[in-house]
Design brief:
Structural class: mainly alpha
Helix content: over 70%
Number of helices: 12
Shape: globular
Radius of gyration: 23 Å
Strand content: under 5%
CATH class of the largest domain: Mainly Alpha
CATH topology of the largest domain: Globin-like
Strand order of the largest sheet: 1-3-2
CATH architecture of the largest domain: Orthogonal Bundle
Length: 254
């Protein structure tokens, strides 16, 4: 079956403007242009659009989706299997949160009791599983399964006070790093304060801290597009700046 841009948009629940943009950037070209100048999409394009929307639903940046689906080695069947596994992970995360809410309701109604640590287990489990989904393969390859398992367990065992402190550190790091970036000197006082805050933040997750591992993580922030996009969201170049500051802080830049 063939579709015009309007019909495909209605079928997929997206705007015709989005489909035209996908054509413009080369992520989803129509099968042909008919004699009246209309874009016409066939079954292959329908299948590709489904893949694109799966990737977008899972949080992939559009540029990364374009790279994946236009690569000569792209395997649609394998991509579907990956989507399936990621959706199952998401369902497990939601099930964990639902169970936590049910337990909280029961405690509020006086039917059960709930410790302060239990109140936050669902959120922490969701964060661990989310990080595993996004970065697990890379960080396990870099640091090993044992180190990552210990890190996850340390995070899950965090007290309410520790969780509040690590949240505060993350917020202070964000503000300090932004101010340091404006100064432009990775060896400056603000940049080195940011590097030290980053170290303090890491110690809440890592079972053992080392300067070498800290410097290696900073480099991964630059090498991995997802980490880089996170740090560069507010200001491009921030990931490289933080890497340079941490390398100076740890002595890796000598």
């Amino acid at each position: 079956m063939e579709y015009t841009v309007q019909k495909l948009g209605r079928l997929a629940g997206i705007s015709t403007r989005t489909l035209r943009y996908y054509d413009q950037i080369g992520i989803l070209k129509p099968a042909r242009i008919n004699s009246s100048g209309y874009r016409i999409y066939g079954q292959a394009e329908v299948d590709r659009l489904q893949q694109i929307l799966f990737f977008r639903e899972l949080g992939f940046p559009l540029e990364r989706v374009r790279e994946v689906v236009t690569a000569p080695s792209f395997d649609s069947a394998e991509a579907l299997r990956t989507h399936y596994a990621q959706l199952l992970d998401r369902r497990r995360q939601l099930d964990t949160l639902i169970a936590n809410v049910e337990q909280t309701i029961s405690a509020a109604e006086g039917r059960t009791t709930m410790t302060d640590q239990q109140k936050f287990e669902g959120f922490k489990q969701k964060m661990v599983e989310g990080n595993e989904d996004k970065y697990g393969e890379e960080i396990r390859r870099k640091y090993g399964n044992e180190a990552i398992d210990k890190s996850n367990q340390k995070f899950m065992n965090m007290t309410q006070e520790e969780h509040a402190e690590v949240t505060r550190l993350a917020e202070e790091l964000t503000v300090t790093l932004a101010e340091a970036f404006k100064e432009g000197d990775p060896a400056g006082g603000l940049a080195q304060k940011a590097a030290d805050l980053h170290k303090q933040w890491l110690t809440f997750y890592w079972s053992n801290y080392s300067k070498e591992a800290h410097a290696g993580l900073a480099q991964m922030y630059v090498d991995d597009e997802r980490f880089k996009a996170h740090y560069d969201a507010a200001q491009p170049g921030t990931a490289e700046f933080l890497r340079d500051a941490i390398h100076i802080y740890t002595g890796a830049g000598k």
